Amino acid sequence: MSSSRDMVKKFHSLTPTESPMSKAIPKHKCSQMDKKLSSPSLPQSITETCRVNKSSRKPKTGCCGKRKKNIKRNNVTDTKPDANSLLLLDQSGNVSACSVSNVHIHGFGAIPVLKGDFKSLPTKAQEFIIEKARIMQTSAIYLCDGSVFEYEQMIEELLRTSATKRLVASGPNVLLTRTDPGDVGQASARVFVATEQRETTEATSAGVLSKFAKWISVSQFQSMVASRFLNCMRGRVMYVVPFSLGPIGSYNSLNGVHLSDSVYVVLHMHLLVRVSSALWDAIGDSDFIRCIHSVGLPRPLTTKLVRNWLCNKEKSFIGHSMEKREIWSFGNGAIESSLLAKECVALRMASAIGRDEGWLAEHMAIISVTDPNGKEYFIAAAFPPGCGKTSLATMVPSVENWKIQVIGDDVAWLRFDQNDGRMYALNPENGPYSLIAGVNRRRNPNMCEMMSQDVFFTNVADTSKGRPLWQGLSEPLFEDETIVNWRGRNLDTVSNAAYKHFDQNNSRESNSISSADARFSARWKQFKAIHPLWENPKGVPLSAIIFGCSRSEGMPLVVESHSWTHGVFMAASLRTESASSNRNVEHDPMGMGSFIGYNFSNYIKHWLKMESTDNKMPKMFFVNWYRRDFNSGKLLWPGFGENIRVLDWITRRLVNTSEGSQVRVCDFLETPLGYQPSEESFNLKGLNVDWSLLNSVPAEFWQKECDAIEAFFVQQMGKNTPPEMNRELEKLRRNIKDDHYRQNK
């Protein structure tokens, strides 16, 4: 009998390269074979496991049948076994039969287990896998263990498709995938939360559509699942991935089991979350989060694929059952919508779990800032997508003797410690999955160094030399080097230089170098400036929380809130300009608008409840790197490494002056928005900026903002708006008219 390693390797050779010209194959039956069949004419790329009718799936104890049925497809003969044996190819291309362990499902039959010991899994996990395998009619089960061998094996499997390629000039295991352009990002309109009562999910006024969690009834949810997932994995392998958000075995971590028929998803789970067979012991008899994902294309294929990318855009759907802690995703191939452990669990579902357990799950980076005196501060930073959160976390300071280290760049779980009363932030993820537009070696050297091995690029360009390119990379081309953009188009000479001049307004054009949603994914342990406490199960103690936005006018460079309640109001009313060409201003409270998993009003109340006499509250600050000169349209602030100057002022605002005479006085101005730095207290050495314009608070602009905030609260929370929010809004209106708040304190 072949070794387990060889057997799994051979099985994967049976999975065909998905072809745009794939045609339907007639239903057929065939039994197991227990002898080797010589078939040297069968190419590995198109030999596949048989899709067996349900009636033929009868539990068997051994290989007893000898019938085989050959089917002509595209002038190639496919030899089809039944569910209890697999056709495997040896190095000579010969077909052989090999036994594997089986899972016998009542009323369905036996499903081969290609890897792992199914019987050793916890009982609840076995029941979950069997139940979903029966519904989705999977042809085989693969139990993932998170090993290096498994990772390499999945890479080889994914490379069989034309959607993924190696970038040989960039380093080992540097891969590029180009998706169907219609399957980019997460469509919030197709993301739902199912609960018994609408009020638990939505708080909008009558007739107003929720901008956040979108409610459907449990019966609607069940109907949408049933209409999509029945038989959806027919002819495909179901990968079973045990995962942990947070260090494995930690009391603050969440454990889950992710089912998927996508190798692309399995590979990204290896990078972005913790995958290990040790998780079965960590789960034990306890419950776990259940994630079910399918590309929604059972075999035989009856639709034409775009770029050999597996997805079903027309029926795509993401549904969250908060009571059952179960998430279903159908038809999605993009990681945001298919790797459910990331946004769906770590943010959307975790926010609801945190509400019940007294903590917060937020869309935040976590960084360490060390000043020239060696004093370290931990800061969380919440920014809407595309506003520079990852750039802040991975920044290389432009001012000497400052140091930035990253704990995480996307998700923060915030809990108060009962012993010292401080808020601690934990990064539950294992690696970044970040927007790449604008990243280059001058601004983000540490991030670029991270991309030298074991990194996945999605929807960027590549060159004839095997290098990745994206908007804003700004690296010269070799004389004979050509570019293929993210849509697979060869660009002309004029377009070859376009990537040097990143412009968000043009990033969605068909001839752009990379997609506006182009990403890279890797492991944090590869990052040069990773903090040694990044995997601390307790997290790190926060001194401040920064909220950011992108506003071309009105919003100053940096503001400190008057209080925790005032900070919650400012964060709840956060508005930011979208990356689209028309720069629409959108509400994105706390930078969490896309990920709030329950009633928005209750979400704000939960933030307010965090403050208590026993808790030491971190200070809140608000920043805007994107203010522009009205006449020239140019940015007023250089950003990137120069943002350390803002962090310098923030950290000095955190220091108690009683700590010693060496603490530099941090002067401030009290303005209608809060506390802002005076020009004398801010390090502007070597910069040429219009300080007054950069930090002005125009009354007319903010009067309009107050009207927009009030309308937003009425629409999204109605009569359930927390009274604290209404009081803070009225206070802001009064302050705008009061010159007293423009005096130097």
TrEMBL record:
It holds the Pfam family PEPCK_N. The keyword Cell wall biogenesis/degradation does not apply. Keywords: Decarboxylase, GTP-binding, Lyase, Manganese, Metal-binding, Nucleotide-binding. GO terms for cellular component: cytosol. Gene3D superfamilies: 3.90.228.20, Phosphoenolpyruvate Carboxykinase, domain 1, Phosphoenolpyruvate Carboxykinase, domain 2. GO terms for molecular function: GTP binding; manganese ion binding; phosphoenolpyruvate carboxykinase (GTP) activity. Residues 1-44 are annotated as: Disordered. Residues 127-355 form the Phosphoenolpyruvate carboxykinase GTP-utilising N-terminal domain. Its EC number is 4.1.1.32. Residues 359-734 form the Phosphoenolpyruvate carboxykinase C-terminal P-loop domain. The keyword Ribosomal protein does not apply. One of its GO terms (biological process) is propionate catabolic process. Belongs to the phosphoenolpyruvate carboxykinase [GTP] family. This is phosphoenolpyruvate carboxykinase (GTP). It comes from Ditylenchus destructor.
